[in-house]
Task: structure prediction
Amino acid sequence: MPDTLKIALAQLNQSVGDIPGNAQNVLEARQRARSSDLIVFPELHLIGYPPEDLILKPSLIQRAAAELQKLAEASASDGPAMLVGSAFVLDGALHNGVALLDQGRVAAVRLKHELPNYGTFDEMRLFQPGPLPEPVILRGTMIGVPICEDIWQPEVCRHLADFGAEMFVCINGSPYEINKDALRIEGVAKRRAVDTGLPLAYLNRVGGQDELVFDGASFVVNGDGGLAVQCRDWEEQVVETAWTKTAQGWRCDRGAVEPLATHPEDIYCAMVLSLRDYVNRNGFPGVVLGLSGGIDSAVCAAIAADALGPERVWGVMMPSRFTSQESLDDAEACADALGIRYTVMPVGAAVDGFDAMLGEAFEGTSRDVAEENLQSRIRGTALMALSNKFGPMLMSTGNKSEMSVGYATIYGDMAGGYNPLKDAYKTTVFALARWRNRHAPRIGLGPSGTVIPENVLTKPPTAELRADQRDSDSLPPYDVLDPILIGLVENDKSVEQVVAEGFARETVQHIERLLHLAEYKRRQAPPGVKLTARNFGRDRRYPITHAFRSA
Result:
């Protein structure tokens, strides 16, 4: 029985449904880790995670089984054994599981026992839970292979330890959320390791999948809770870890401990990677967006340039008679700093045409939000025309503060295929802009230096849909609005609880009313990357029609 092992952690991106492509990167990673004894791949890697209802297609399961068999046969060649996540049908039940491929065969299959059914997860409607698993045996060593949620509760790891497991190798599809790194390491992995006295290797996937993004950040902790290895976040890696069997049991040797992105770089990287994978995997040549001279569109343009390269980003300024020269100058300066394509396309003629068309129907009424929103909807129509004609995806730019209270025009500035700011409050957007002007993200493709003009950061936010308009005409200042929204949205607090934190009752009641009224808009909003534990759509699922008010 050997007293050393080499285990390679393949922190890879996946493409949901691309079974041959995912299998190919398994083989390529195995080739890179030829000297290892075992190489490990993330949860459901062969199919891609999360597959959602695609997993219910029998033909997909059949193809995955056939591809898994090919990978098993490939394990007969020189190189490590493989732990590959996939879906399995056993006794007519569909399971999330992992296969040990070794010496030309499927040597073992283990099934996920704990199925998450909260937040973004709804695995209980897709899979059946497996029994409490036994360890797999590799080179005489008993390895427990809990799958993702299996380590968030103590039962599976305790069972594996009682059954004789000597170490844990846990495969994951754990989406990014703010501050989740500490929760994974301190709150979960170290607890399981210290509780059982066994080391735990935690492997996570990386990359974007619709509204989810996975940060990687795989790691190994020893049985005493010490961190032995920390992989980079936001990047693919194949990292070989060295293990030694001592009198006290297996221990991972000290390896590279990479620094993880701090706040707000982590949020920025999440936006960049999610947009990159969304655009590329859906076959768009690039993106087009309205560049208004404001903070939101400037940050979105920077994210797009970092995600795709400046040459694939097209910013369009669409001035109306209410657009200031300051906004025109700021939009052009932003485009120049980023090196993106820039076009000015005035919408005045179209606005005049709609005013004339609606003149008889609107006769006898005063100008109000209906006329204001026409400008936004005209801009959305024009941008969609550019998207249709030339192929780039229209990117929308509204932030979570605006989406919360409905300060956005449905079928106007809400039009688009993806919105990187959908789960970022306005105050977060300002923080991202300041950070990006001082740093170039390590996964970015855009230029370094100041890419968002300082004037964009300091001038009062405005939609410029009427003369002398400011956001503060309709909303509290964002440093007041955002804490109220965090209370109501992120923490599900009542009006009374938020008022007790020092906010005016009338203001909080008004914001809660706007929050509920805007639900129908949010249902029709484009997808956007999840950053918080309560993003709109996947986490916070409220009825559109309801009469409840907390005060």
